[in-house]
Amino acid sequence: MSRYNPQLYHRHSLRQKGFDYSQAAVYFVTLCLQNRDPLLGRIANGKMQLNDAGRMIRK
């Protein structure tokens, strides 16, 4: 296994400076699934209609 080389990999934090991530908050999460298949449901009339898998994940 090769060692981490900072000259090849430039990782930047996506965290907001000064924000306390240890506090309770609401987060919006976007998932991009394999082949963009609607595995958790579909959008109908601007609303997410969950299928069985989507309801299981929500629960």
Features:
59 residues; alpha+beta; two-stranded antiparallel sheet; 1 helix
How would you portray this structure in words?
This protein is an alpha+beta fold and 59 residues long. It has a domain at 24-59. Helix content is 12%, strand content 14%. It is built from one helix and two strands. It has one helix spanning 52-58, and strands at residues 41-44, 47-50. It has a two-stranded antiparallel sheet with strand order 1-2. The longest helix has 7 residues, at 52-58. The protein is extended. The termini are far apart.
Shape label: extended
Q: Any low-confidence stretches, pLDDT <50, length ≥5?
A: none
Helix content: 10-25%
Number of strands: 2
As laid out across the biggest beta sheet, the strand order is: 1-2
Strand pairing plus helix content: what structural class? Answer: alpha+beta
The SSE order reads EEH
What is the arithmetic mean of pLDDT? 85
**Radius of gyration in whole Å, from Cα?**
18 Å
What is the straight-line distance between the termini?
A: 39 Å
Q: Report on the biggest sheet.
A: 2 strands, antiparallel
Blueprint of the fold:
Elements: E1 41-44, E2 47-50, H1 52-58
Antiparallel strand pairs: 1-2
What's the quick description here?
This protein has 59 residues and is α+β, with helices and mostly antiparallel strands.
